[in-house]
Amino acid sequence: MDDKTRTELEAAAFRGLVAHLQKRTDVQNIDIMNLAGFCRNCLSKWYMAAAKERGIDMDYDQAREVVYGMPYSEWKDKYQAEASDEQKRTFEETKPLHAEISGH
Fold first, then answer.
1. Which of 83-91's residues contact partners 24+ apart within 8 Å by CB, and which partners?
2. 27-53, pLDDT tens digit by residue?
3. HSE (CB half, 13 Å, CA atoms) of 57?
4. Are 48 and 63 spatial neighbours (Cβ–Cβ below 8 Å)?
5. Do 41 and 29 meet the contact criterion of CB atoms below 8 Å apart?
6. pLDDT band per the 50, 70, 90 thresholds, residue 100
7. Is the pLDDT of residue 104 over 50?
């Protein structure tokens, strides 16, 4: 497979993941973090880092809007629930497994 085709397939997979996460507003970031070690915010940070590597000026809020499909503050108001004590405990226990770029 040539590099152009690989990049196109990777981009399509990214768009599919983002669309799925935008659809699944019932799934909290902390649940994704606790299970998979990354979340929408991590994905936003990866997106922002990729932009910066290519000389594209992008801040975290702009990157989050790409992933969330709306400003983060709006998504948070509409969909984010308070994390339970158990979710917070699991988050702390799984920190060594979290994505390195996640900022945690």
1. 83/28, 83/30, 87/28, 87/30, 87/31, 87/34, 88/30, 90/34, 91/30, 91/33, 91/34
2. 999 999 999 999 999 999 999 999 999
3. 0
4. yes
5. yes
6. confident
7. no
What is the CB neighbour count within 10 angstroms for residue 6? Answer: 10
Please, what are the domains in the chain?
Answer: 3-102 (1.10.3340.10)
What lies within 8 Å, CB to CB, of 44 at 6+ separation is: 60, 63, 64, 66, 67, 68
Q: Name the token pair of 96.
A: 């060594």
pTM above 0.85, yes or no: yes
CA-to-CA separations, 83 to 2, 12, 60, in angstroms, rounded: 44, 32, 22
Q: Is a pLDDT exceeding 70 seen at residue 103?
A: no
Whether the pLDDT of residue 20 is over 60: the answer is yes
CA 27, 33, 38, 39 dihedral sign is: positive
- Please give the DSSP secondary-structure letter assigned to residue 95: G
